[in-house]
Design goal:
Helix content: 25-40%
Structural class: alpha/beta
CATH class: Alpha Beta
CATH architecture: 3-Layer(aba) Sandwich
Number of domains: 1
Distance between the termini: 27 Å
Number of helices: 12
Shape: globular
CATH superfamily: Ureohydrolase domain
């Protein structure tokens, strides 16, 4: 059945069928105009785990999302689908967190990884595996981009989208990143892991020259080294710390004017990187490193809407750190953010 026939025969008011695709839609990845690439990966976990199960959990929860959107009529007709979850990648991810945890335990006890044979071996293995994951993501997203698709990514921990950013750089000579996050993620090889989830934006700035601007919002957990990266960036990194955002609002600044100001820093082409812990933790209590504060759901949605209304082009996006450890709540919120 053609895409047009599937659209004409689909009832968006019906319940999501068990054999249907993302959001209960009838589209395959080959047919869809927007393809979500799942990356079930969490290796450099430094606190809570479970994000490798995020893509599958969000897919399941998406069946409960009603498709009517008063701001964009018949949005579902765009045709969205999730690609197949890569089982081999998931299996490799599952075998590494305990090793990384062992390494972190030794590191926190004062051991030197350059003088400790076991630590050096673990660090080498983890860094090699993460590099392979990035290569996988680059190839998977590049394939869909080459086919003319709009592409999104769902992790996994926040290390996962670096390969996607590299693929986008083959299509766009310059773009900006809008990062919604509790953490700055500007650490250089955090804990010795080159591709740590806490290093994603540092790696984006150093490995993807096409990233001309990084605008961070909601940041509320960060270290001095990360502040130094921001201060020395010559304006390439603009950070709206959560405390400053809240105080501006408390002092009478409207959320609308604040969001317009944030968006003005972005170039014409925008990539959105959404770590779910950028939200208030009541909306994502099981995420790896929840931090008090953050966005309400509609505040984050309004910021993204402001990007669209500004005339900028969203060239891709990711959603990361959704962890369904305790219940389905995080996945439910994640599906609605997606």
């Amino acid at each position: 059945m053609s895409l047009e026939n599937k659209i004409s025969s689909f009832d968006p008011n019906d319940l999501g069928k068990k054999d249907s695709g993302l959001f209960g839609l009838p589209f395959t990845a080959d047919e869809a105009r927007l393809v979500v690439v799942p990356v079930p990966w969490e290796v450099t976990v430094s606190y809570g785990g479970g994000t490798a199960n995020g893509p599958a959990a969000v897919f399941d929860a998406s069946m409960q999302v009603d498709l009517f959107d008063p701001y964009l009529e018949n949005a579902w007709k765009l045709g969205a689908a999730m690609d197949t979850i890569p089982k081999k990648l998931q299996a490799e991810s599952a075998g590494l967190p305990k090793k990384a945890e062992r390494y972190i335990d030794l590191l926190s006890s004062g051991k030197d990884p350059d003088k400790h044979a076991e630590m050096k071996k673990i660090r080498t293995a983890v860094n090699a595996a993460c590099a392979r994951m990035i290569e996988h993501v680059t190839a998977a997203t590049q394939r869909h981009l080459d086919a003319g698709k709009m592409v999104a990514l769902i992790g996994g921990d926040h290390s996962t989208p670096l390969g996607f950013m590299k693929a986008l750089a083959t299509k766009h000579t310059d773009f900006g990143i809008l990062q919604i996050d509790a953490h700055a993620d500007l650490r250089n090889a955090y804990e010795g892991f080159t591709y740590s989830h806490a290093s994603i934006m540092f790696n984006a700035l150093t490995e993807v020259p096409a990233v001309k601007k990084l605008v961070q919002v909601g940041i509320r957990d960060y270290c001095e080294d990360e502040v130094n990266v921001i201060d020395r960036s010559n304006g390439r990194v603009v950070t709206y710390f959560d405390k400053e955002i809240k105080h501006d609002i408390y002092n009478g600044k409207s959320i609308r004017s604040l969001h317009v100001e944030i968006v003005r820093h972005l170039p014409k082409r925008v990539y959105i990187s959404f770590d779910i812990d950028g939200l208030d933790p009541k909306l994502c209590p099981n995420t790896g490193t929840p931090v008090p504060g953050g966005f309400e759901f509609e505040e984050a949605a309004h910021l993204i809407q402001t990007v669209v209304e500004s005339g900028r082009t969203i060239i891709g996006f990711d959603l990361n750190e959704v962890s369904p450890r305790e219940d389905e709540w995080d996945a439910n919120v994640g599906a609605r953010i997606l």
